Structure formats: C-alpha cells, structure tokens
Amino acid sequence: MVKLCHWTMLTGGFWKCCIVSGHGVILLLFLFSSVVSVYVEAYDNLLSGPVAQYTALSQKIGGDVQKHVRNASVLTSLLAPMSKVIQEVQAFREKNRSSPLFNHLSAVSESVPALGWVAMAPKPGPYVKEMQDAAMFYTNRVLKDYKEKDKMHVEWVSAYVSIWTELQAYIKQHHTTGLSWSQTGPVASASGGAPAPPPPGPPPPPMDLGKSSGGDSGATNHNALFASINKGADITKGLKHVSDNQKTHKNPVLKAQGGPLPSGPKPFAAWPTAAASPARTLPPVLELDGKKWKVENQEGAHGLVISDTELKQVVYAFKCNNSTLQVKGKINSITLDNCKKLGLVFEDVVGIVEVINCKDVKVQVMGKVPTISINKTDGCHVYLSKDSLSCEIVSAKSSEMNVLVPNKDGEYTEIPVPEQFKTVWDGSKLVTTATEIAG
C-alpha cells in the first residue's frame, strides 16, 4: 500500500487529498481538516463497500488476479503517479497474456483508466461509464467460462463492475461536472508549507472601440461614415473617373513597369446566405419494421437486446455510439453503419455481417457466421467462436483491424489483419500479397 497526501484549499476549508495505490487501482481520498464533508463520507462508503469486496474476492481467487491487486508504485506528485500506476496495471496484463486468468486481468486493464475521472470535467460520470463498458467483453468472457464452474468468479465480476457503478452514482451526486475544487482558494505545496498566493484577478474590461486617443475624433469618424451610407445612390457621385490609359490591364506601358500593384481591402471570401441551422438530434429507434430490425441514433445505450428473431429478419444499426447491442437467435444478416464505439454480440447469422463507415467497434460471434465484411472502418475487433473459425473476413479501405481466435484452453490469440500489400507482375497477371511489415 502506497499513499501520498497533500493539502489544498477546497470549498469550505483546507483539505487533504490522498492517492492510495495497492488494490489494482488508485483511489482518491479527501479528508477535511476538521469537519467531514458529505461527499467524503460517501466516498468512504464506496471504499468500504464494492472496493473492499472486490479486493477480498481477488485475494481468494489467487494467482495472477491476486498479484494484479497488489500492484503499487512510489508516488511523487498528485496526478502523475496515477497515470504511472494505471500503465503498470496495463503492463502487468500484457506480460501475462498466457495466464489462465487473462480475461480477469484484461477487464481491469481496459477499465482502470476510469480513475482519471478527476481530470475529466465537465463530464466525469460518462467517462467512467465509457471505461466500464470497455471491460464488458472480458467480463462477459469470465461469466461465460465460470458460470457453471465457480461462482466465486461470477461474484468477482459483480463486485468489480459495482465499483464503477457506485463511482458513477457518487460522481453524479457530488461532482457532476468535475471535482468540487474552490476556484479561488490557494494551493499548498506537497511538503505542507504555507499556501501559495491566490491566482491573479480577472483581466481588465475590454476596450471601448467607440473611443479613440484623439478625443471625439472616433465619434466624428463614425458620424461621417453613417452620413456617407445614408446618401444611397448619390454616394458614387464623389468618385473620380479612371480613364483607360490609367488602367494597368489596358495600358501596356504601365503593365511593363512591373513592381507590386497597390492593393486595396480584400473582399470577404464568402458571405453566408442564411444562418447555419442547429444540428438536429434525432430520437433513438429500436423497432421491427417488416423484416428489418432498425437500431438508430442510440447514444450511450448499454444493454440493447434484440430477441424473438426469425431467420428471414435482418438487423440494421445506424449512427449508434458508445452503446452495446446483443442479437439473440438465428438471423439473416447484420449491418453496422456509421457507428462509433459500438459493441455487437450475436449468436448465428446465415448471411453476412457488414461493418461500414464505423470507428472503434467490437464484434463477437457466439455461434456461426460465414462472412464478415469490413469497409471504410478504423478500428474493428472481431472475436470468433470455435464454430466460426471458417468465417471469411473481407476488408477494404480499413485500418486497425484485429481478429481474436480462441485457443484450446479458452483464451484468445489476437491477430492483426494486414493493411499493407505488395503487388507484382508475374508475366501474365498481377499477384498481390501482404507485406511482412503489415503482419
């Protein structure tokens, strides 16, 4: 267990901010010098509840999970050590990819960045939720592997997930838009010295453009300008006529003299014809329209489920972000279009699964699928089941694609899909192969 504390000014008085490392995570503790605040007491309840249960179950499971929970480092400042320990948690997982408890380690590794919520104003709660969802694939694997074998692992998943659930509730109640730091209070050094001076005051008021250093000349110039504008069509009567021999483009002599031409004020590049219309927020959709299941405009929707499916039906997911979708039963086809950070889990597809114009999506096959097509997509992880190893994966104009293949022991081997190719002429046709650098 490693702890670093320093005093700082928060709303209501001096506070002591501590970072505690040693439970596989780093926890911020806020201690008031004389009176315990309501959100300090709430945080203590979080520590004594889900965190304590998660730690106890990790010790009972043992092995790499127990080692993972003991991870710690020397802390030298307030936030930098948090990032360092998070990296150590993730590095521990990478060093133990062959561990029989790799899914446990991965669940913690994928979600532990949620501890950075203290610096994620103004939406720390949604950030924690996003990190929690990042671990869903691995917690589901733990549940699948141990549901019928060892209930302790199921309880471990429940305890770990509840940490982030309770933390979100805590943030929503006490730090909705960020930590309740005082905006003007002094900040003391880590050594406990005198408080630092307060930040400088607000900037001076903006300069009045209607005034000038020449007394009333500014107002006079403005009056003259408006008087000219009010002339209407007569405003051109004061302009001097320019003859053709004074125009450069019509006088070869002037043109031959060269040199820079006098430049006047530049016109606007464009003048908007109408005010930009505000972006429309379309309502979320999850419905069966004929033979098509429509899943549209879902934002932060976790736990979307399509059941009671039929073989003739298809699923079309459009513009679904930070969401998860589960499709039960056997279905004809599934299409993901313009989705971002979407997790898809399905059982059986007799046709094709298409991923188009997406970013950072995860697709998990629980049963069988003959073909998966990936087009114009950046970031796609495909988890194959033992029954879908013969699946054809066709990709075009895409990057950061990985296929995860199950091993005999139930673990996954992650294999990148080549993105760089070499094409040569063999005398009769073009022959294209993946380059070595592409893996």
Q: Beta fraction of the residues?
A: 25-35%
CATH topology grouping of the domain at 285-434: Pectate Lyase C-like
Name the shape in a single word: globular
Instruction: Name the average pLDDT.
Output: 74
Q: Could you say what the CATH architecture of the domain at 285-434 is?
A: 3 Solenoid
Indicate the low-confidence ranges by residue numbers.
Answer: 1-37, 72-77, 188-201, 207-215, 259-277
CATH class of the domain at 285-434: Mainly Beta
Protein name: C-CAP/cofactor C-like domain-containing protein
Keywords: Cell membrane, Membrane
GO biological process, one term: actin filament organization
Pfam family, one: CAP_C
Tag the structure with descriptive keywords.
seven-stranded mixed beta sheet; C-CAP_CF_C-like; 439 residues; globular; single chain; adenylate cyclase binding; C-CAP/cofactor C-like domain-containing protein
Structure explained in plain terms:
The protein is of the alpha/beta class and 439 residues long. Among the domains are: 52-175, Adenylate cyclase-associated CAP, N-terminal domain (Serine Threonine Protein Phosphatase 5, Tetratricopeptide repeat); 285-434, Pectate Lyase C-like, CATH 2.160.20. 28% of the residues lie in helices and 27% in strands. It is built from nine helices and 19 strands. It has helices at residues 38-61, 63-69, 80-95, 102-111, 124-134, 136-146, 151-174, 217-229, 252-256, and strands spanning 2-10, 13-21, 26-32, 285-289, 292-296, 304-306, 314-318, 321-331, 333-337, 340-349, 352-356, 359-365, 371-375, 378-383, 392-396, 399-406, 412-416, 421-425, 430-434. The chain has a seven-stranded mixed beta sheet, with no helix packed on it. Helix 3 (80-95) runs antiparallel to helix 4 (102-111). It starts with a strand and ends in a 5-residue tail after the last strand.
